[in-house]
Amino acid sequence: MERYLELIKNSYSDYWNYLKNEILLQNNWDNYFYGLIAISLVVWILEIIFPWRKNQSIFRKDFWLDTFYMFFNFFLLNLIVLIALSNTAATLFNDVLGFIGLSLSSFQLYNANDLPKWLGLLMFFLVSDFVQWNTHRLLHRIPSLWNFHKVHHSVKEMGFAAHLRYHWMEPVVYKSLLYIPLALIANYNAQDVAIVYFFAICIGHLNHANLGWDYGILKYIFNNPKMHIWHHAKALPTHVRYGINFGLTLSVWDYLFKTNYVPYSGKDIELGFSGDESFPESFVKQELYPLFSEKKDTD
I want to staple 164 with a disulfide (CB 3.0 to 4.6 A). Which of 70, 191, 212, 294 is the partner? Predict the structure, then answer.
């Protein structure tokens, strides 16, 4: 137990030092703090220059709430709980394997050093995105998880910052389901995967932006604003119950597994979910909502 407590303590101090160095520009090019700011500013400028919904304000409804969510979820949440939790869980899992004479490395499908880095990172990206696509489906399918995911779907006007508006439990679910698949295929450091994460942030921001783009023929590969807005539609099509267009970065999974749905331009469709009129509007109340809500449905 003392070992795990020390690990938790070190996780907090290590991430605090990392975050401090990020803000003070003492890290290399893979600076997630200023990278997020730069990507956000670029996509926001694109929204201003090429607005899809021209009557939507530059400072749309919940702009500042979503901006707070963006920095809280991407940085502060790691400091508060995620890094310590993930480090402890990973160590505990490896200790359990060791107790029965196994190790996760013995199950690795390949050595990262045996492949060209571009190919290894491409596999990392594809496996990660596919697992997250399936996880996203679970967030809609399982009532208890949907109650957490409602925070993201409470967005009423789409904008880039809505990308990172989600309940703190969501990354716990995503990271838990991602841990083993990624451990089996790769062991890359933060700098190696930085380009993958920056690309995912770009696509995620664009998906939620006030932009009427679908990337032409590339819409069948990459998620896009015209496709993703239908994922946020308040009224689901009659042939589905749990949602459509679950892609995060890639849309190809939706086309392969027939969960794609873009019937016409969704520029002015109503966003949200059934019953969202009573959903809380403040950050604290939204975070507490799943704990006190008695409504466990899949609306």
Answer: 70
